[in-house]
Description:
By secondary structure, the protein is of the alpha+beta class. It has helices at about 95-105, 150-160, 170-180, 190-200, 210-215; strands spanning about 25-30, 35-45, 60-65, 75, 85-90, 110-115, 135-145, 165, 210. The strands form 2 sheets. Strands 1, 2, 3, 4, 5, 6 and 7 form a 7-stranded antiparallel beta sheet that branches. Strands 8-9 form a two-stranded antiparallel ribbon. Helix 3 (about 170-180) packs across helix 4. The radius of gyration is 18 Å and the shape is globular.
Amino acid sequence: MQSGTMWKLVSCSVLVVLFSRLGSCWTWSGADEPRDQVQIEVLFRPEECGRKAQRGDLINAHYDGFLAKDGSQFYCSRSDKQGHPQWFVLGVGQIIKGLDIGIMEMCAGEKRKLTVPSALAFGETGKGPVPPNATVVFEVEVLSVSRGPRTMEAFGQMDLDKDRSLNKAEVKEYLKLEYEKGGKPRDEPFYEKILADIFRKSDHDQDGLISAKEYNIYERDEL
């Protein structure tokens, strides 16, 4: 989401519908910045709300970004990057901190409106069409939540040859099993896109492998 292409002005109709019977609103503070809060409004939650997003989960979502002061739109995932939903690992800094906070506990099919203060968004400098010190509003729709390839248990399951590194075949096999287990098998292009994203963000030395050190984004002793 923080790529340069995101910050161009785009037009996109707002597709999030307010279901008043399910609407609720609360605030959630950033752990390191207790004075800064994300205001969370639930627009829709499915009756069957299965797995709820946790830190390290792999999320697929659409989101639209607006400036709080005038409602002007600065981002729409439905028109950026050919309209594909965005893939990211939650809670590890792949998206702005306010989104990491606001998407926590969402389930597939849920929609939220998140009002994010500048300290948890783009700060004192701003970015692209977002001015300095701007409060922003995101309308988020989560399409899928799956256990991300970031837990110690998952690393052990993926590392089939026990060489303490992961190649694309190992990660792909793990993802396939996870989606099939959830009753939602996908086609090859779907997995290839996730793999490309995972390795682009995690294979820091670009050797085609994710080492135990590269994988261990939580810096836990288990690895």
